[in-house]
Design goal:
Layout lengths: L3 E8 L1 H5 L3 H10 L3 E8 L3 H7 L9 H8 L4 E9 L1 H9 L12 H5 L8 E3 L3 H12 L2
Antiparallel strand pairs: 1-3, 1-4, 2-3
The structure holds inosine-5'-diphosphate and magnesium ion.
Amino acid sequence: MSKIEQTLSIIKPDAVERKLENEIKEIFKNKGFSILKEKKIQIEKNEAEKFYKVHETKPFYNDLCSYLSSGPIVVMVLEKNNAVLENRELMGATNPEDAQDGTIRKKYGISIDKNSVHGSDSVENAKIEIDFFFKD
Ligand code: IDP
Ligand code: MG
């Protein structure tokens, strides 16, 4: 069974800095994702801390939040059948070294921290993350 879902995608600072946003958006569109909403923003570190709160006990939390707030990002709501899982598959493994051929992180990721994209990991978290950036 497939069902229409929405998921939150972020093109992270390393990819925006390398001017990859249009290329990455084309990949999503070519795979059948609709970009329902998008905005290019830079967030404050305290907002990144809220967004990544689930990771607050991890040793990489501080660096992760500094990084996400270090430059412009592109935040998007993607829609497709099974969007959450399909986006995770298209992104590839968290560490680009482990990501499969054909994935965004394999193609563009620099390192485990500079891995070019974020994607929600469940339908429930997708709703929370979409609200975080687009509730107004
Ligand atoms: P995900 O982005 O694939 O969902 P998460 O485990 O949710 O991966 O971690 C969030 C982000 O934190 C990752 O995308 C990555 O940038 C960073 N991260 C995860 N694990 C590590 C690590 O071991 N060292 C440094 N950064 C990490
Ligand atoms: Mg995650």
